[in-house]
Amino acid sequence: MGEFITRYEGRCWKFGSNIPTDALVKSQYVFEPMEEIVRHVLEDQNPRFPREVQPGDIVVAGFHFGQSSGRAIAAKALQATGIGCVVSDAFSRTFYRNAFEIGLPSLEVPDATEIVEDGDVVIVDIAEGFFRNDTSGLERRVPAASPFLLRMLAAGGLIALTQSDPDWAGVN
User: Fold this and answer.
1) 129, 161, 126: which is closest to 142 by C-alpha?
2) Which of 9, 53, 120, 133 is the most exposed place for a label (fewest CB within 10 A)?
């Protein structure tokens, strides 16, 4: 396993509140190959996103991001776009857990969407609980991801953790 990174810096893609998993991956694409799914991720919220997202970009969304169905394919598709991490004012609990289970770094930052705009450069550190809009200089400190979730991310997700660490359940 390589060096585990908890700090991300990239261009912000800002989205609103109450975005369901069906907006991340429309039902007609659920059984398509991931290459096809990625071409449609969040396209109804911002048609530019699936065409212009770059590796390391950061999604910042409002409240209840990833609500409704608990399909893990939504988190997997977002991860497959190459984003560095996702930040939300408040995640749907199921999406939040799915993100960590597949190895997608996530941080909950109340009012994150109030201090960013599309295209701003943002810095996120999930182990430190740090969020900064580097374009404006505004920043927030929040609780960091738990040691167990960080360990899950370091392993590459839940399945990788259970396969690589016989004591995985003993992590706080």
Assistant:
1) 129
2) 9
Q: Quote the CA–CA distance of 36 and 28 in Å, as a whole number.
A: 11
Question: From CA 57, how far away is CA 28, in angstroms rounded?
Answer: 26
Q: CA 102, 170, 4, 12 torsion: positive or negative?
A: positive
pLDDT of residue 159: 87
Angle (nearest 5°) at CA 139 between 137 and 142: 170
Six-digit token string for 68: 């409704």
| pLDDT one-digit tens code per residue, 104-124 | 999 999 999 999 999 999 999
Q: Is the dihedral of CA 49, 146, 4, 34 positive or negative?
A: negative
Q: What backbone torsions phi and psi does residue 7 show, to the nearest 5 degrees?
A: -110, 130
Amino acid 172: pLDDT = 54
Q: Please list, in sequence order, all residues whose beta carbon lies within 8 angstroms of the beta carbon of residue 146, skipping any fewer than 6 positions away.
A: 172
